[in-house]
Request: fold
Amino acid sequence: MNDLAFRDRAVYFPDAATLVVADTHVGRDEASGVEFPLGERADLRERLEALLAHFEPREVVFAGDVLHQFGDVTPDAESGLRELLDCCAAADATPVLVAGNHDTLLDEVYDGAVHDCYRLEDAYEGEDVLVAHGHEEPAETALLYVVGHDHPAIDIEGRKRPCYLYGSGVYRGGDVLMLPAFNRLAAGATVNGMWGTDFQSPLVSSVNEFRPVVYDPDSQETLPFPPLGRLRRML
Reply:
């Protein structure tokens, strides 16, 4: 994982100058009636701006479930999406949108291309990375698959934290990196007691080989843990 940089529920690929976030779920607060203390739109925008300022990427890939609601895109949700795209434009970063299972109406509010998956060439150990949402098996192959969809989190000493899941050689001989949901309102699935059949993504069959990775915003350190099959016995 030396070719990756983790920060605030996102991952950056220096060799491709590409930032990847998953599960922004724009409009989540409006759909649920829950008002996030900071305001969902401001929270998403400000955190994305901070990532853009830190990494200065050439492009930003939104790895599916860009929108939250299936059947309707409200003016507020459309405006929230536009704010994220404007953040990218202000930072001279090209936005790339990958469709997730929630994004049935994404092409109605976004006039650019919407991808089923997106390839980053020579981005990981000199090989290609395939970014997809993870709700279905990708048609293409790569050395590393980057997905979202399941919103992983881990409970450590009674505190639930968003986490990444990294598995080496676990899917079609390639590695899998599952990102936590970028939207902090999206419920995290606590992986401590989960098994392969508990995951919705078909890229996860046996979770025991997946290693949780936690980014600690206080220390700004990335903390890799042992694979879940071993970690469960330690928690």
